[in-house]
Specification:
The chain is α+β, with helices and mostly antiparallel strands. The protein is built from four helices and ten strands; from the N terminus they run ααββββββββββαα. Helix 2 packs across helix 4.
């Protein structure tokens, strides 16, 4: 619990020190453009394969798991800026430090099959992106996607074509119970690691860089 509180405290302190200075670029428009470009960047990467983490270390107790399957993670490109929240910018001589509130609008995990049945986990996760935008370079540095846990989940059953099965949900396997120890525990830890340190970060960095090329004349 102390780790979570410390992380939140750091974000709060950073947020309080970032002010809307007299910079000449529209930070909201820039981030929106980058997240729109993220859709195309993600499409260029094969994200349809099963995600398997190897030698994954759980942050709570440092237990190492040799192999853990998340299933197929879809909707990485659905990361969007939370419109009602203000992006914050701290201007320095050579860079801008940017913080924006974001959320996933359509994040879905197709879980490994159990008894030939397909279960899908809808994931509600929100947090912040933080990065440094340099004035004399298109590079994006110190990029972080911060997603506080726990996530919110909803479970559904799919047919072989990936369509929702209409009607009452059949009994859900214990390991896929959204409020159970597996999903709330090790699965959430593994998914959090994948979202914040996996392929999405590289895609997001590329999207921010592509969008930065369009606003460089106004980043001074």
């Amino acid at each position: 619990m102390m780790k979570v509180n410390t992380a939140c405290l750091v974000i709060c302190l950073l947020s309080s020190t970032m002010t809307q200075a007299k910079y000449e670029f529209d930070v909201k428009k820039y981030v929106d453009s980058a997240l729109q470009k993220l859709k195309e960047v993600v499409r260029r990467v094969n994200t349809n394969e099963t995600v398997v983490l190897r030698d994954f270390s759980r942050p709570e107790n440092h237990t190492v798991i040799a192999r853990f399957s998340l299933g197929t993670v879809r909707g990485l490109e659905s990361l969007t800026r939370r419109k009602r929240q203000t992006c914050r910018v701290e201007e320095h001589t050579e860079r801008h430090n940017v913080l924006c509130h974001v959320k996933f609008t359509d994040l879905l995990c197709i879980l490994p099959r159990v008894d030939r049945k397909i279960y899908a986990l809808s994931v509600h996760a929100k947090g912040w992106i933080m990065f440094r935008l340099y004035k004399d370079s298109p590079d994006i540095r110190t990029l972080m996607l911060i997603l506080p846990k726990p996530f919110e989940y909803a479970i559904s059953e799919k047919d072989s074509a990936g369509r929702d099965i209409i009607g009452p949900l059949s009994s859900v396997p214990t390991q896929y119970n959204p409020t159970g120890d597996n999903i709330k525990g090790v699965y959430t830890d593994a998914l959090h690691y994948y979202l914040t340190q996996g392929v999405l970060i590289e895609c997001l960095k590329e999207a921010l860089k592509e969008a930065a090329d369009e606003i460089k004349p106004s980043v001074k």
